[in-house]
TrEMBL record:
<keyword id="KW-0472">Membrane</keyword>
<dbReference type="GO" id="GO:0005283">
    <property type="term" value="F:amino acid:sodium symporter activity"/>
</dbReference>
<keyword id="KW-0812">Transmembrane</keyword>
<protein>
    <submittedName>
        <fullName>Uncharacterized protein</fullName>
    </submittedName>
</protein>
<dbReference type="Pfam" id="PF00209">
    <property type="entry name" value="SNF"/>
</dbReference>
<dbReference type="GO" id="GO:0005886">
    <property type="term" value="C:plasma membrane"/>
</dbReference>
<keyword id="KW-1133">Transmembrane helix</keyword>
<feature type="transmembrane region" description="Helical">
    <location>
        <begin position="6"/>
        <end position="29"/>
    </location>
</feature>
<keyword id="KW-0479">Metal-binding</keyword>
<dbReference type="GO" id="GO:0046872">
    <property type="term" value="F:metal ion binding"/>
</dbReference>
<feature type="binding site">
    <location>
        <position position="115"/>
    </location>
    <ligand>
        <name>Na(+)</name>
    </ligand>
</feature>
<dbReference type="InterPro" id="IPR037272">
    <property type="entry name" value="SNS_sf"/>
</dbReference>
<keyword id="KW-0813">Transport</keyword>
<feature type="binding site">
    <location>
        <position position="15"/>
    </location>
    <ligand>
        <name>Na(+)</name>
    </ligand>
</feature>
<dbReference type="GO" id="GO:0015179">
    <property type="term" value="F:L-amino acid transmembrane transporter activity"/>
</dbReference>
<feature type="transmembrane region" description="Helical">
    <location>
        <begin position="100"/>
        <end position="118"/>
    </location>
</feature>
<feature type="transmembrane region" description="Helical">
    <location>
        <begin position="41"/>
        <end position="62"/>
    </location>
</feature>
Length: 160
């Protein structure tokens, strides 16, 4: 039972992005009189509701696939990247216009990854601009340079 709560706490910190510095960076753009408590509550509740809805969607897909294939849900539910790139496309292939749902699903995955990268990149850009205020007028060039640097650092992770 303790392992479930530890996993839930880890997921909470990951989904809110507490340790990445993005929340502090975005908060630094607020006015000093901003209502932080109501913003924190709204963000946490929205994250919780989104996670609950996503859980319903995930286990609905698992249950449907388990029933269609005659297997147990635990056999269908593979953790990690297999869920996004194997289980969901297989579930979407059973829906009518399956090609449309597959294109929409992978477009959603692409935009989610891109959105996460925007937050992390903006955190680094804000740190650079806070440390070197004269560079604020070069934000576009800093963003392009950091994007290229991140791309080059990621290449060894994707190439054999």
């Amino acid at each position: 039972m303790v392992q479930v709560w530890v996993a839930a706490a880890g997921q909470m910190f990951f989904s809110l992005g507490v340790s990445f510095g993005g929340i502090i960076m975005f908060g630094s753009y607020n006015k000093f009189t901003n209502k932080v408590y109501s913003d924190s509550l709204l963000i946490s509740l929205t994250d919780m509701i989104t996670s609950i809805i996503a859980g319903f969607v995930v286990f609905t897909a698992f249950g449907g696939m388990a029933k269609a294939t005659g297997r147990k849900v635990s056999e269908v539910a593979k953790s990690g990247y297999g869920m996004a790139f194997v289980v969901y496309p297989e579930a979407l292939s059973n829906l009518p216009p399956s090609q449309l749902w597959s294109v929409l699903f992978f477009f959603m995955l692409f935009t989610l990854g891109l959105d996460s990268e925007f937050g992390m990149l903006e955190t680094v850009i804000t740190c650079i601009q806070d440390e070197f205020p004269k560079l604020k007028k070069y934000k576009t060039y800093i963003c392009i340079g950091l994007s290229c640097a991140c791309f080059l650092m990621a290449l060894p992770c994707t190439c054999p």
